[in-house]
Amino acid sequence: MLHKLKYALVAGVMLGVMPNVHAATPADTLVIAKNIDDIITLDPAEAYELSGVEIVANLYDRIMRFEPSDISKIAPGVAESYTVSKDGKTLTFKIRKGLKFASGNPVTADDAAFSLQRVVKLNKNPAFLITQLGWTKDNVDKMVLAPDAQTLAITITEDFSPSLVLSLMSSVVGSVVEKKIAMEHNVADDLGNAWLKSNSAGSGSYSLKSWKANESVVMEGNANARGGAPKLARVVVRHVPEPAAQRLLIEKGDADIARDLTTDQITAIAANKSVVVTTIPQATLHYIGLNLNTPQFKNPKVVQALHYLVDYDGMANTFLKGGFKVHQSFWPSGFWASLDTNMYKFNPTKAKALLAEAGFPNGFDITMDARNSAPHTNIAQAIQSSMAQGGVKINIVAAEEKTVLTKYRARQHQMLLIDWGPDYMDPHTNADSFARNTDNSDKPKSKPLAWRNSWDIPEITKMTDAAVRERDEGKRKKMYLDLQAKVMADGPFIIMFQETKRVSERSNVKHFVMGPSSDVVYYNLTTK
Amino acid sequence: MRDAPDRPRASALIARLASFVLSLLLTFIGLTAVTFVIGRFMAVDPVLAKVGDRASQATYDAVRIEMGLDRPVYEQYLHYLQKVFTGDFGTSVITSHPIIQDLLHFFPATFELATIATVLGLLIGVPAGVAAAAFKGRWPDHVVGVVGLFGYSMPVFWLGLVGLFVFYGQLGWVGGPGRLDIVYDDVVTTRTGVLLIDSAIEGQWEIFRNAFSHLILPAVLLGYFSLAYIARMTRSFMIEQLSQEYVTAARIKGLSFWGAVWRHAFPNIMVPLITVIGLSYASLLEGAVLTETVFAWPGLGLYITRSLFNADMNAVLGGTLVVGAVFIGVNQLCDFLYKVFDPRLRTA
Q1: What are the backbone angles phi and psi of residue A527, rounded to the nearest 5°?
Q2: B96–A197 CB contact, under 8 Å
Q3: Disulfide check for B214: which of A297, A442, A467, B175 has CB 3.0–4.6 Å away?
Q4: Where in chain B are the domains?
């Protein structure tokens, strides 16, 4: 027995160290190398992390969707059409006939209504998206109705533009969950939440085979999906936290797509003909929040001066090249109603003059919180260096993301470097946070970015509220353009960049669809 | 009559067992109490990990109450202990799974890596340390010194990436990041969680080989660091023993130099050496965060670290208990081995 074991061990060692021929990824499987450590759940009523939302977008069809080819246009999803009542408060969706869940059961309006009600009743992370429509646990069963299998009627109490409501139906909470399966796993009134964290019950292109935290997400094609079965039968999203390891995997052909390569790595693989890099503008903005409770920032001239002490182009053209473009308004470029003109350029002379007028001819010392990972650390250092030219000496406090956020939510920072992505594709999502603050006290009901930076703005809040209610699209657009200009000129935000994602694909990979946000990343059309 | 002498022995055994269980219990309570208090005073809001940054204040407040964070810390801790004693370690925020399930998933990956690494460190480090002591001041000593110094000073992150680049990227001798190639995912039924064992049980030798090819590089890397430590300590222990008079006496009696080294000096360094190896093994069993990051290895280190950054205290506490159990277990194993190798301790 001992001898056998000894031989088995020796054989194992020899086999292991022998040259190991690596095959390409399986022909019917799309292998994506990505850092997915942000996934904490795959239940569409709970998922709100970027990687989680992306997976959910492929597991569940939504009431409405955004076409990846034109992000300014909303497209039908499970619903084929909709009508809006005269008062704009009731939207009636016609559900497509013949749709089926992965289980084979038909997709009905009752499933769609259940899915929306479920989000409100569970009240998890993304619930705020639709509770803002005036839905509560108590009224949602009356506000969201399915009078027949093909009709979904939703009524809102708030006076919101229908286009905003449609955008919300295209966000993660608009995912249609199969009621029967969810309720089969209903434990302690959780409407199947515990089970759906790591299982799926949708009609998307794929169904979930497994999610192993810190390891992988495996999905299998759904033959019943709208538009037919996906081109590749299986998708494996493998958790590879280190970008250098992702680069090795894609260069070796052990991954078809690598998602997190750094600028240096992208430059380095440019010569490799078997890898193609695609650039896609994203909706994420990177900005500095200035807490107006800080004594130095009480004078608006100081806030102005700091805007002139950031070398926007210098950063975008050097270490951020290809990954970020300069963008200074709160609604990203490429979306409906975005303001694309930038107001500030690096100008230390002008900044010094403004600081002198504000009573700080020699500048001042200040702290800036930032995340301790690339590119945040690099951006923070560049800002520290450019601000020093105006006499503003920054002490960078680098920490993990959650630590920075905890401080930000308690508004205990002075300056804070962070990023922000919209929750859905309507400018109200960002206006609601950058340009709305209904209660600047220390115990508010919500903590939008304006509150976090102590920006008390009753007038601008009114402008934001008016814009979301406006039903004339032309007028509404003008209102958002004005709001963006106002926030850019007077706000406590130094908005610097709009992010651009670069996806590295093996040259045989075609039609991987990646839009400007996690909601618009589709695997089903990909071939290789 | 025969039973008479056994009674005191049996009661002594029970007393020792009881004292062991008591010390185990006190250690665990102490560990969890300290971790719990630290967790509650960290600069990270545990509710944030669960509800995210965008949730409304109402959702935030509801979850805060649901997590029991509105209650005094001592009350939260007692509640936690109460649940632990019923076998409920809670659910992880970051994986959505019961903590026990997570630990059973992540610990075997670390165990597999740490065990192979320690075996490598032991098989090479001990002879290298003995050789360095035997040839003190000569070239073998210098070689072992330089190799050890290199092991101490190279950042594991860098060495891991270089190793991957050369042996996976260029030569293709080993598997890449992860525990298996994609094609073998979910083929083997999880029994122990240790892929080498599970694949061997099923006779899936192709998967065994693949798992080994993925394991070998991170294991060699960790083994190298443990080797450097073990070799240095072995050398130091051995030099001390070789200067003892009993070694000189053995040589005068005609025993060869190597005979004196291995038959007389070496058994005398076994006890401190076991301590060194035990500590090195235990520290590897805690998980090696950087190695796990580079090699996309789903181990305990990455799990605890990620949980800590998200203030996922149930997971951190569960991980802490495993680390505590590992140290206690390794200590017990060392105690046992001391008695095997040192006859003087057997009667104690």
Answers
A1: -125, 165
A2: yes
A3: B175
A4: 6-85, 99-346
A198 and B96 within 8 Å at the Cβ level: the answer is yes
pLDDT tens-place string over residues B184-220: 887 888 889 899 999 999 999 999 999 999 999 999 9
Q: Which two tokens stand for residue B58?
A: 């109402």
B57: nearest CB among A17, A213, A446:
A446
A23 touching B, CB under 8 A? Answer: yes
CATH for B99-346, options being 3.60.15.10, 1.10.3720.10, 1.10.10.10, 3.20.20.190: 1.10.3720.10
Instruction: For residue A400, give how far its alpha carbon lies from the nearest alpha carbon of chain B (Å).
Output: 7
The C-alpha of B336 sits at a distance from chain A's nearest C-alpha, in angstroms, of 23
**Residue A284 confidence (pLDDT):** 93
Sign of CA dihedral A256, A257, A261, A266: positive
- Is the pLDDT confidence value at A16 over 50? no
Does domain A38-197 fall under CATH 3.90.76.10? My reply is: yes
Residues whose CB is less than 8 angstroms from the CB of residue A176 and which lie 6 or more positions away in sequence, other chains included: A60, A61, A62, A63, A78, A107, A111, A112, A115, A202, A203
* Distances from the Cα of A448 to the Cα of A454, B78, B130, angstroms: 10, 36, 65
CA–CA distance, A402 with B245 (Å, rounded to integer): 61
C-alpha closest to that of B248 among B261, B234, B236, B235: B261
Instruction: Give the one of B106, B183, B208 whose C-beta lies nearest to A12's C-beta.
Output: B208
At residue A237, does pLDDT exceed 90? yes
**Is the minimum CB–CB distance between A223 and chain B shorter than 8 Å?**
no
| CATH value of A281-501 in 3.20.20.70, 3.10.105.10, 2.40.40.20, 3.30.450.20 | 3.10.105.10
Residue of A nearest to B295 (CA): A245
With a cut of 80, say whether residue A19 has pLDDT above it.
no
CB pairs under 8 A between A and B: 178
Question: Considering only alpha carbons, which residue of chain B is nearest residue A421?
Answer: B54
The mean pLDDT of A251-280, rounded to a whole number, is 91
